Predict the structure.
Amino acid sequence: MRRIEIFDTTLRDGEQSPGVALNADEKLQIAHQLSKLGVNVLEAGFPIASPGDFEGVRRIAQEVRNVSVAALARANAKDIERAWEAISGAESPRIHTFIATSPIHMLYKLQKSPDDVLEQAIQAVRLAKSKVSDIEFSAEDASRSDVDFLAKVFSGVIQAGATVLNIPDTVGYATPEEYAAFLQSIMERTVGIEKVKVSVHCHNDLGLAVANSLAAVGVGVHQLECTVNGIGERAGNAALEELVMALHTRKDQFNVETSIVTAEIARTSQLVSRLTGMMIQHNKAIVGKNAFAHESGIHQDGMLKERSTYEIMSPSVIGIDVESIVLGKHSGRHAVQQRLTDLGLNLEEGRFEELFSRFKLLADRKKEVTTSDLFSLADEQKEKTDLINLDYLQVSSGTHLVPTATVGLMFQGQRLADAACGDGPVDAAFKAIDKVLGTQGKLIHYSLQALDGGEDAQGEVTVSVKFGENLVAGRGVSTDIIEASVRGYLQAVNRAFSRGWIEILEK
Ligand code: KIV
Ligand code: ZN
């Protein structure tokens, strides 16, 4: 059976989602999980974009094995040098260089003639080839480009040494049949196409990213570019889990296979959601909370009689298992440690005892400590490496009271505290944090949901906060929803601080 390669760009295109700002540690954690998931190529970032991006890519290239590591570079010498500097330590490095080829992009954005664009593309690939053998060339906005011009550019870059040609639907404008026909025409006209791999990269502006990518499989492309949970610029990219499970479940239609370990899909999806702060919509295919839930009586009846009546794939295939051992207040160290290991949550030395005592406190407040709770407890341990941590929180509010919050924070070994009033207790707490730190966050989005089902579920808050021009997301979990809100806001503050977007005023 033909093998399709999966090129994951969660850490590059996905990281370009508004509000997402991962630090190097978080990127590394996701990269290790992507390698476990079995992606063939992992696009680690855009090294020229910022020193933080460079560092994230460099560390992934050094530390993550069993996967090709790609770095993005515009078609110019500075970007390519920087990309190479970042990935030269990788087991199997790839430089991914791009330039736009559509009339609209060449005229208005690049302000270059088609001949100049062709020349720049060839020079860029030549330079990249002098550094590494694996070169991917992308024609940005390919799907709105002239077929003959695009074939000329592709023929030129193949001669210059490109090994992968990517034909993106950058603005998510294509429709499946049209896109397949366009790809077919390009492949027929490009000289040397048989020597390279052909890739597609589809955006979801019309909700067609997955459909377009699957149409491309039908015309024989070799590589699909996608992101976990479909995150990415604007409406996002083709969702990895949807592509992989469509190919897996409908092998009869597509006749291809991937190297993805499907049992790692749910875990990867949850990790990406937690670290990016991008919630997964409940009805999202494959990984949404309701994707395997059956509500109506008729459906439940059918399921009880024969699962295949309403279930086209088993949740266990993507790694959702009903746990046989329930963790609660009577559970001991061994059971908790075993579950953490099963979940791939490997804590740093000495962190387990702290997690276990937090586990016991939580188990006193809730009947069952779920997998999501364990992920949150493990996250808390990682947050200990944050520079700004919550020390204490006190709020008062009520029908006839002015909502007031006092927040104590630990910053560089100092205990800092202040109080503020607000429209409600959450607003008061966020204002108190800003007062303590001398920051000015503008809350753009706030959402609260239960982490799992059940009346004693923990509250999960996600926020997007603007600091100056920069938007950053944060997530917090607690049995107390005000505390969850404060933790989410502090995560956003920590991310903005580590990126150099805010300064903390010395007291
Ligand atoms: O959408 C796009 O065209 C891209 C390229 C850089 C591949 O992300
Ligand atoms: Zn893109």
In short: Residues 438 and 505 are 5 Å apart (CA to CA). The mean pLDDT is 93. The radius of gyration is 24 Å.
